[in-house]
Amino acid sequence: DAGVIQSPRHEVTEMGQEVTLRCKPISGHNSLFWYRQTMMRGLELLIYFNNNVPIDDSGMPEDRFSAKMPNASFSTLKIQPSEPRDSAVYFCASSSGGNSYEQYFGPGTRLTVT
Amino acid sequence: AQSVTQLDSQVPVFEEAPVELRCNYSSSVSVYLFWYVQYPNQGLQLLLKYLSGSTLVKGINGFEAEFNKSQTSFHLRKPSVHISDTAEYFCAVRPGGSYIPTFGRGTSLIVHP
After folding, report:
1. DSSP assignment of A77-89, as one string?
2. A4 touches chain B (CB under 8 A)
3. Nearest one of A104, A81, A90 to A34, comparing CA atoms
4. Which residue of B has its CA nearest to A101?
5. Sequential DSSP letters for B85-113
6. Residue B41 and residue A83: Cα distance in Å, rounded?
7. Which stretches of chain A score pLDDT less than 50?
8. CA within 20 to 30 Å of A56's CA: A81, B12, B15, B86, which one?
9. What is the pLDDT of residues A51-69, one digit of tens each?
10. CA B66 to chain centre
11. pLDDT < 50 stretches in chain B
C-alpha cells in the first residue's frame, strides 16, 4: 500500500487567500484524523472522521477552518481566509477498526501564510 | 480528560549509550499506549504499542517500553543508540472505548557521535 497520501507537500500563500489541503487515507481504513503541528502548541487534533462522518471537530480553531470527507478515499481541510498564524505542518492520519487503533500518518503539508 | 506528560523536551546522548525517554499519563482506567517516532520532515511512524498482556513491549529499531500501571508510566528505552535514532519521539495514550489518542508534547532525542 502507498500509505497515507497528502498534497501538496508545501504551500505558500498570502494572507486572505483560500487554502485547500488534501488527503487520501489507506484503503480500508475507516477513521481519518487531521492534525496541526507547531513548535508552540505541539501536535493538535483538529477533526476526526469515522466512516466519512465528522465525529469530533472540537479542535477546529475557528470558522475559517472546515473539513470534508465526501467518500472513504478522500478528505479535504480548507482554510478561508488564511492568516499568518495558520502557518504550521498539517498531518492527515488514518486507522482501521479493531482494538489496535494505531494511526498511520501522511508526510504532512507544510503551510506558510505570508 | 486524559493528559500525557513527556518529562524531557530534549535528551542528548552519545552514540552507543543507553537511553530512556519518559512518559506518564493521567488516567489509570483501561488504556492503550503507543510510542511514535518522527524523523525530520516526515510524518509520525509507530515504534511500538501496548494493548494488553506482557508489560514489556518490544518495537522496531531495538526499542522497548515497559507499561507500569501503578505509576501510570510507559517509558521508552534502548540499550545502545545510533546516530540514526536522532528524531522526535511522541508518547500517545488512547483510553479504552475512545477512538481518539492524546499525544504528549514530544521528546527530541539527539545522538552525538
Report:
1. EEESS--GGG-EE
2. yes
3. A90
4. B99
5. G-EEEEEEEEETT-S--EE---EEEEEE-
6. 23
7. none
8. A81
9. 999 999 999 988 999 999 9
10. 10
11. none
* CA-based nearest distance B15→chain A, Å: 26
Q: What is the pLDDT of residue A1?
A: 66
Closest C-alpha among A108, A103, A109, A87 to residue A39: A87
Q: In the beta sheet, which residues pair with residue B95?
A: B31
Cell of B64: 522497548
Q: Hey, are the CB atoms on A48 and B100 less than 8 Å from each other? A: yes
Is A102 within 8 Å of B103 when comparing Cβ atoms? Answer: no
At residue A19, the pLDDT reads: 98
Please state, rounded to an integer, the average pLDDT across all residues of chain A: 93
* Grid cell for residue B94: 488512547
The answer to whether the CB atoms of A55 and B99 lie below 8 A apart is: yes
Q: What is the per-residue burial (b if ≥16 Cβ within 10 Å, else e) of B78-112?
A: beebeeebbbbbbbbbbbeeebbbbbbebbebebe
What pLDDT score was predicted for residue A110?
97
- Point out the residue among B43, B104, B106 whose CB comes nearest to the CB of A107: B43
